[in-house]
């Protein structure tokens, strides 16, 4: 699914008005109807306090007030006055409302007019939407803080007021919504961790904007959805043999971190590679053979960490390196040798990334189309700090293009930057996966897909989606608190079945 900017959404609005055709007032009515239906169905209250600005977001608020009133709800409207007059559609809805004397309408022109609210009401925030073009200050900012001081649920229309759609809002006054009813498509602002306190649960209101616009308009960012994954998925052919699905190598583990090697190797096996081998420290050999008997093993000459390759790296279909390898000098040299020698894309994670970040000259050795899977701290070590999540996303995109690599920046909505400039946000997964070992599982899964012939871009997007889906199924079965990384592996099979 494409993610559009506030400006593109404005263009989509205009395109719909012209090509459906429909008047902008009718479109507002459609939007208000969708919101009202949701509100009536999902809230038990009888009383609603609706705060409106004087743009089209406020116009939505006025139309919602009328529709809720028609649904026999008690409605009170507060209008934040501004120096400029209302938008055309705001004014039209204001005039309609004016004739309904049973709906009290109050103006807020100064702090003295900030209202007290009945304790059982639900607050509807229709102050500012996608038209926000600067930080809220003065009376608008004070009103936002005032609304946030109440304990009642807040339903934001389109955007929590004060939150920018496509840029950082850090430190700004913003409505803290319990639910956000947003029109047609999710917004970039709802995908970044720094905004987590503001939008609550997001619900998409389908207002039938013209499909012709979204089909023809390119978007930089996308949300990975099931239809994209189904288009990537290649069913296994009936007459296939193990040679058709590649030979994956996992280079992982050191003393005390053999578990990382076990998790990656098992995840790699469970994701469908024809053959899986594990290069592990010599002492880990019995452990890996017990925990993953289906895998072959290359024990290192050294007992406690990995030091040398006794194989040709290009003989494998894919190699994933990093989980639990530590940062011993000889391990660093081995990584350098691998980076210099291999002609294929790698999957690099964890300590492989930490070694690269800490050793001058390594970064530029990363082979083209390699997939790196840093969490935010590893990402900062590699590429430097950023002031906010939006800058981090931009930096990931620009580094991906500059270095011709795929960057999967792990987080609640893992962001995958492609070298062609596109970016994919993943929406599967849950907080139960925020535990040691989850990343090792992901490395194994992506390496497995790469071995099977999926492109590096596909392997990253598909692997991250499947990993999150397996995590969601694990959470459903075991609970977020109790689930562990092994449970993600146990649910990979069911995740495949759900595609
Ligand atoms: N997408 C769709 O298809 C549909 C969209 N619809 C709705 O339209 C909404 C967008 O409406 P909108 O463009 O009128 O902008 P909105 O958010 O109401 O802001 C109003 C004005 O506020 C001002 N302003 C900005 N920042 C400010 C600040 N910090 N402090 C003070 N003032 C500030 C700025 O004017 P300025 O002062 O810059 O002249 C701005 O123009 C959208 O969110 C959705 O609810 C639906 O009705 C139908 C279908
Ligand atoms: K709003």
| Overall helicity | 25-40%
Low-confidence stretches: none
Instruction: Write down the CATH topology of the largest domain.
Output: UDP-N-acetylmuramoyl-L-alanine:D-glutamate ligase
How many individual helices?
17
Which CATH C-level class of the largest domain is it? Alpha Beta
Bound molecules: ligand NPW, potassium ion
Task: Calculate the terminal CA-CA distance, rounded to whole Å.
Answer: 16 Å
Beta-strand segment tally: 18
How large is the radius of gyration? Answer: 27 Å
CATH architecture of the largest domain: 3-Layer(aba) Sandwich
Derived from helix and strand composition plus strand pairing, the structural class reads alpha/beta
Number of domains: 2
- Mind telling me the CATH superfamily name of the largest domain? Ribokinase
**What summary fits the major beta sheet?**
11 strands, mixed
Mean pLDDT: 97
| Beta strand % | 5-15%
Task: Please state how the strands of the largest beta sheet are arranged side by side.
Answer: 1-9-18-17-16-15-14-13-10-11-12
Instruction: Give the CA-based shape.
Output: elongated
Cofactor: K(+); Mg(2+)
Binding site for (6S)-NADPHX: 56-60, 129-135, 158, 260, 324, 375, 440
Keywords: ATP-binding, Isomerase, Lyase, Metal-binding, Multifunctional enzyme, NAD, NADP, Nucleotide-binding, Potassium
Domain YjeF N-terminal: 9-215
């Amino acid at each position: 699914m494409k993610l559009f900017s506030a400006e593109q959404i404005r263009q989509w609005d205009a395109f719909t008005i012209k090509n459906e055709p429909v008047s902008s007032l009718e479109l507002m009515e459609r939007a208000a109807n969708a919101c009202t239906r949701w509100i009536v169905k999902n809230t038990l209250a009888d009383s609603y306090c609706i705060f409106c600005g004087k743009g089209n977001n406020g116009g939505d608020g006025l139309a919602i007030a009328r529709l809720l009133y028609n649904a026999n709800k008690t409605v009170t409207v507060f209008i934040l006055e501004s120096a400029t007059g209302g938008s055309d559609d705001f004014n039209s809805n204001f005039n309609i409302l004016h004739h309904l004397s049973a709906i009290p309408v109050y103006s807020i022109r100064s702090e003295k007019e900030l209202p007290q609210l009945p304790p059982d009401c639900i607050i509807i925030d229709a102050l500012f939407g996608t038209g926000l073009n600067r930080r809220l200050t003065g009376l608008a900012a004070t009103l936002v803080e005032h609304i946030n001081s109440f304990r009642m649920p807040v339903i934001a229309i389109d955007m929590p007021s004060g939150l920018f759609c496509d840029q950082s809002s850090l430190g700004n006054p913003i409505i803290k919504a319990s639910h956000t009813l947003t029109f047609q498509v999710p917004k970039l602002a709802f995908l970044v961790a720094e905004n987590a306190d503001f939008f609550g649960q997001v619900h998409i209101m389908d207002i039938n904007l013209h499909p012709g616009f979204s089909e023809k308009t390119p978007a930089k960012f996308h949300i990975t959805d099931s239809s994209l994954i189904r288009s990537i998925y290649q069913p296994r052919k009936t007459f296939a043999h193990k040679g058709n699905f590649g030979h994956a190598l996992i280079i992982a583990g050191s003393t005390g971190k053999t578990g990382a090697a076990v998790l990656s190797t098992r995840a790699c096996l469970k994701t469908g590679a024809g053959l899986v081998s594990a290069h592990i420290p010599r002492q880990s050999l019995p452990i890996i053979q017990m925990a993953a008997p289906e895998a072959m093993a290359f024990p290192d000459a050294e007992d406690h960490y990995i030091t040398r390759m006794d194989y040709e790296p290009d003989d494998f279909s894919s190699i994933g390196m990093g989980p639990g390898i530590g940062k011993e000098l000889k391990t660093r040299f081995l990584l350098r040798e691998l980076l210099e020698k291999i002609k294929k894309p790698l999957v690099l994670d964890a300590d492989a990334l930490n070694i690269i970040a800490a050793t001058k000259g390594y970064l530029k050795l990363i082979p083209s189309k390699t997939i790196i899977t840093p969490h935010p701290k590893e990402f900062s070590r590699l590429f430097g700090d950023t002031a906010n999540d939006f800058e981090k996303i931009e930096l990931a995109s620009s580094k991906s293009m500059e270095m011709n690599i795929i960057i999967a920046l792990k987080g609640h909505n893992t962001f995958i930057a492609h070298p062609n400039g596109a970016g994919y946000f993943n929406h599967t997964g849950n907080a139960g996966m925020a535990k040691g070992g989850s990343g090792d599982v992901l490395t194994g899964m992506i390496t497995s897909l790469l071995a099977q012939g999926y492109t590096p871009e596909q392997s990253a997007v598909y692997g991250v989606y499947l990993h999150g889906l397996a995590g969601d199924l694990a959470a459903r079965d075991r609970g977020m608190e109790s689930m562990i990384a092994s449970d993600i592996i146990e649910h990979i099979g069911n995740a495949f079945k759900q595609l």
